[in-house]
Specification:
With 182 residues, the protein is an alpha+beta fold. 38% of the residues lie in helices and 27% in strands.
Amino acid sequence: MGWTSLGVTFGLGLFFLSSMEGHAKKAVESAITGTEEFSGVVVKVSDGDTIQVRKGGQGKPVRVRLYGIDAPEKKQPFGEKCRKMLADQVAGKTVRVWVREQDRYGRSIGKVLYSQGKDWKDAGLTLLKSGCAWHYKAFEKRQTLEDRTSYAAAEIEGRKARQGVWSDPSQEAPWEFRKKRR
C-alpha cells in the first residue's frame, strides 16, 4: 500500500470516527492511535507531571507521566507548588488515562482526564494554562494535531497571564535543569 492509499485510508478512518459516539468511538480511536485506555483512582502524585493510578481501584498502581507536558522538578522553584496543583486536581479521584506509549523508566505516557462536575478536564492543559508546565515540544510530533495545537495555545495563555513559572523570567525549563545535573 502506497503513502497515498494510507493517507486516504487514515482520512476515511478519521471521518468514520467523527460520526461515532461513546464507547464505540473510544474503541476505534484507540485502534487508530495505538493507545490503551483505562480508568482508576490516583493513589499518589509524585511530582508535577507524574501520578500513580490504581486501575479499577485494585491491584498494583500504574505510574503515569502526563503526555505532552514537562513540569518543574521537585528541586526547582515552583516544583512543589505545581505538584500540589496536580494533586488538588486528581489525588484520590477517579481519572481516565489514554496511554500513548511507555518511557524508558517504565512509566505509561498518557493523557489524563479528571472529573470536574459533569465535565472531564485534561490535566495537562490545566497545568499549562496555570503556568505549572511547559508544552514538551521535543515530543510534540507524537501528539495529535489537535493536542499539539491546544497544548501550545494553553502554554501561551499561561505565559501571557504571567502565571506560575512565567511569573519568574529566570525560570529554567525542566529539561535544561535535568541536563545540568547529569
